[in-house]
Amino acid sequence: MNKTIHLAYSTRHTHTVMLMEAGWDMKSISERLGHESIMTTMNIYAYLSDNIKQKSIDSFDKYMEQQK
Question: pTM for this one?
């Protein structure tokens, strides 16, 4: 892979992870990336960053506290 293609891929990948961390839903990300199917997006970006995992945990904890 040449450097130009690698840089473009890396930038796209970083942008996608940043969208996920900002709380964008996968459908919106998929549309922004131009994927025909949300499954394409899910298969490529199935992993979650540590920030996303922590936000999910915090969100659930907050929800559970509100249920008391």
Answer: 0.67
Which is nearest to 45 in space by CA: 22, 23, 29, 59?
Answer: 29
- The token duo for 35 is 């994927």
Residues 15, 17, 18, 21: what is their CA dihedral angle, to the nearest 10 degrees? 160
Residue entry with tokens 């990336």: 33
The per-residue DSSP string of 33-55 comes to HT-SSHHHHHHHS-S--HHHHHH
What distance in Å separates the CA atoms of residue 45 and residue 43, rounded to the nearest whole number?
Answer: 6
For 8-55, how does the pLDDT look when each residue is reduced to its tens digit (9 = 90+)?
778 888 899 889 888 899 899 999 999 999 999 888 887 766 777 888
